[in-house]
Amino acid sequence: MAVGTDSFLHLARPLAPSALGVQPTTAPLNVIIQPQAVFSILDHAVRRDIRDTQSTRVIGALLGVRSEDGMEVEVRNCFAIPHTENEDQVEVDVEYQKNMLALQLKANPREVLLGWYTTSLELNSFSALIQNFFASPETGTFPHPAVHLTVSTEAGKEIEARAYISAPVGVNAERAAESCLFIPVPYEIRYGEAEKSGLELISGAKDSENRAAPVVSDIEGLERAVDQTLDLLERVSEYVNSVLDEDREPSNALGQFLMNALSLAPKVDPQDIERDFNNHIQDVLVVSYLANTIRTQIDLSQRLATATLTMGGSDALAATGGEGGGDKGQRGGQRGGKRGGGGRGGGQQREPREPREPNE
Amino acid sequence: MADSVPKEIPLNSVQVEALVVMKIVKACSATFPTTATGSIVGMDVNGTLQITNCFPFPTADVAASDSHPNDHMAASNLAAAAPRSKANVTYQNEMIKCLREVNVDANNVGWYTSANMGNFINTSLIENQFYYQKEVNERTVALVHDVSRSSQGALSLRAFRLSPSFMAAFKESKFTTENMQKTKLTYKDVLVELPIIVHNSHLLTSFLHQLPAELPKKELEFPASLQELTADQPPIPLYPNLESLDLSIDPYLEKTCDQLLDSIETHYTELNNFQYFQRQLAREQTKVTAWKTKRTAENATRVAQKLAPLPEDEWERLFKLPTEPSRLEGMLNARQVEQYSRQVDGFTASITSKMFAVKSNLLPDSS
């Protein structure tokens, strides 16, 4: 379920000069990123404004949940923040950030501000400035460390991501605001069961020329899964065969694994299988049959309810010409006998044998 | 927006960005089984509605009611009505204004909702979609994500619009038999489904190629032991999803059957309502006829007595004919039943093939 990264060494980081009473947490931190957050960042990178700003990167805020002990943060959501950046200054739309944060939190009350992202791997003094903004007690995540996620979005290169937290460094007081030490922290991209089917569909489109894929029905999905499984089986049996022919090097571990897998096949009496199979398939087919019958009945009743029927005879004996007689049809045709009228309750045949209201 | 677009090209397909798919999946599964709703933004290009972003609507204090499991119905209803509520319209406008600043398409193109085993066709859906299609922008869609079905196999995401004829009828809320006969409106015409295409950006495609995807083509090192193999399993590709090979179908069938029974129940209620109406009508009409005969007789005597005849149309004031109940509920129910049975068909198709596969696997010589 997870795309892990290399191993990380957690270092105790220097403490920030803390505000009164509140101790900043120093526990190691593990960052979990959900795919939709990554998707959102990439989308933002695609939509960046290239006209009036020299910066090639965009920034945004990360939202998500933090575990109770603060050891683990899960990035679930993020939003873009407009900013401009040039050689000597950076401007972040603080007002926008505040508004958007309020809006986002309204819809997802359980999420909190976790940190920020940017779309280049570079860390510079502007990064420190923004990082300090996001880590500050008033506008940021203090006493928890603010997470900084960098995602490289250069065309034609691998997309790399790194996660950092920060610690203050000992420079003089005037420059404290624009300097900090970025400490890399481990992260992983993790997706849950629910997202799996979505990701499946999305990755289905990745090899096609126009980067698009239609939503498939269950049966098509099944077909592909079966094809895939057959391919895999083919591959395994090919390997086993070539080992038997002494073409390829055998492996004890693989053999053991295959043995274990094969021994999972249940040993059941053929008759039992036959019986269970028939029972189950009958159940399934009956459900399907009933569902379709119900559909037909209701379809019929809807049709009868609105069919423009010409008046046939005046009373009980309806014109027998199919659509011939009947008034509003009473939505009657379905569910034999439900009409309760003595015997006349017209079962499921098409001619509605209903008493009419003369002037409908 | 809607007006600047030439109306000649009707919407014929919906193209959803991968981001939107993921966001909807997340939002819907997070609140499951409570209904989740949200707004989608995008634009339409030559009849294809491109949906490029979405955001959820705030749910009013659902979190507070989490302790009572029975409340989720109430919460669902609340959430289902969310797209129409005033607070959310403000929220939506606010959000779109913000999104515009970061170059997201600032054009509302509809809304999304979650469903549970296909039970999404109800008045709430119709009213929401009507609200969107009527006022905000004509070219809007409702995206329906079925959480339970997606967990069973392929992702279930569908796009719906109300048909123009249904729009017209709903506007005047005329769902009488007479009117439906005239307009030939049937339950099949309520919703129009549009095909959905999922689209990825270039960057995303690049990213997806880094996720575990295909099995490595090159020769791998042999594992030293079984432990190593189990501890360090090769990554499982996302696509195709092998989980659709799972055999357990019964819970889904059972759930669908339950829902079908509910629908039949609704159908009977509607039926009874209508029969009640017809009996009522018949009774009133008998009374009217009786009154008319009496009045004619009276008038005859009055004429004989050289008195002015009493007016004969007074019955309209004296007797009030019952109003015909709306056909809408019945129509939606019929559409819902159709949806269920299609769904069952789908289940049956895949489960039978899977079962035959299993059978011929276990009993190779029987077939």
UniProtKB/TrEMBL annotation, chain A:
Composition skew (Basic and acidic residues), residue ranges: 350-360
GO biological process, alphabetically ordered: formation of cytoplasmic translation initiation complex
UniProt keywords, alphabetically: Cytoplasm, Initiation factor, Protein biosynthesis
Ranges of biased composition (kind: Gly residues): 331-348
Residue ranges of domain MPN in the record: 31-170
Any one annotated GO CC term: eukaryotic 48S preinitiation complex
GO molecular function, one term: metallopeptidase activity
Compartments (UniProt record): Cytoplasm
A UniProt-annotated Pfam family: JAB
Keyword Isomerase belongs to the record: no
Entries under PROSITE patterns matching the protein: MPN (PS50249)
Region (Disordered): 317-360
Entry's family note: Belongs to the eIF-3 subunit F family.
Function: Component of the eukaryotic translation initiation factor 3 (eIF-3) complex, which is involved in protein synthesis of a specialized repertoire of mRNAs and, together with other initiation factors, stimulates binding of mRNA and methionyl-tRNAi to the 40S ribosome. The eIF-3 complex specifically targets and initiates translation of a subset of mRNAs involved in cell proliferation.
Quaternary structure and partners: Component of the eukaryotic translation initiation factor 3 (eIF-3) complex.
Protein name, UniProt field: Eukaryotic translation initiation factor 3 subunit F
From TrEMBL, chain B:
Any one GO MF annotation of this record: metallopeptidase activity
GO biological process, one term: formation of cytoplasmic translation initiation complex
Compartment annotation: Cytoplasm
Single GO cellular component term: eukaryotic translation initiation factor 3 complex
Main location, first listed in the record: cytoplasm
UniProt keyword list: Cytoplasm, Initiation factor, Protein biosynthesis
Matches recorded under CDD domains: MPN_eIF3h
MPN domain mapped to chain residues: 14-166
Pfam families: eIF3h_C, JAB
Role noted for this protein: Component of the eukaryotic translation initiation factor 3 (eIF-3) complex, which is involved in protein synthesis of a specialized repertoire of mRNAs and, together with other initiation factors, stimulates binding of mRNA and methionyl-tRNAi to the 40S ribosome. The eIF-3 complex specifically targets and initiates translation of a subset of mRNAs involved in cell proliferation.
Family in the record: Belongs to the eIF-3 subunit H family.
Subunit structure comment from the entry: Component of the eukaryotic translation initiation factor 3 (eIF-3) complex.
Protein known as: Eukaryotic translation initiation factor 3 subunit H
